[in-house]
Amino acid sequence: MKTKFLSAIVVATIGMHLMSCAQAKKATGASAYASLMESNMHRTLPGVRGAEPITEYNFIITWNSSTPPQSFFWRGEDGWLGCSVALAHKAKGTSEYTFTDVRIDKIKKGDILKLTPMPGGKYPIPASIPKNATNTIYFKTINNKWLGLPVKKFNRQADTIMP
Question: What is the pLDDT of residue 70?
């Protein structure tokens, strides 16, 4: 009788230990700092024959860290672009966002951000970024190296055709 009771305690203790170990695992890498909520792509087709279409991207992310970011960049098919950052607010009962300007050093944990890659500027790609890495949002904080959030799928919006 005592043996059955002791073995039940041992099994229960091991089970509780395994559960606590599983719960203790924390997110690592980029997901510890930010999570991607939406990724959108919109093309504008020019009215001039032979001209290249313009593709615009924007991303909605949640900032998960109490340490604010220092910068955001988009590594797309066309290179390394700095991103403008705005706070995103969603009104109750709607799927639409409104945006307000924010200084990047004022971003807090739980803030929802809109990132928009901006053409122009001559930002060299850091050596630590893999040459074949594309479709990734890169960011860094004061305490870490470059971290990347891969973007696997885009919500493609209807093309705009210019006259």
Answer: 95
Cβ-based neighbours of 101, under 8 Å, separated by 6 or more = 86, 87
Contacts of residue 83, defined as CB under 8 A and 6 or more positions apart, other chains included, come to 72, 73, 74, 115, 116, 117, 118, 137
Instruction: Collapse the DSSP code of 56 into the 3-class scheme (helix H, G, I; strand E, B; otherwise coil) and give the result.
Output: strand
What are the extents of the domains in the chain?
30-161
- Both structure tokens of 8: 């039940």
What is the mean pLDDT for each group of 10 consecutive residues in the chain (163 residues)? 42 36 50 95 90 93 95 90 94 88 95 94 86 92 91 93 89
The architecture that CATH gives domain 30-161 is Beta Barrel (2.40)
Q: Which of 98, 74, 100 is nearest to 87 (CA)?
A: 100
pLDDT of amino acid 9: 39
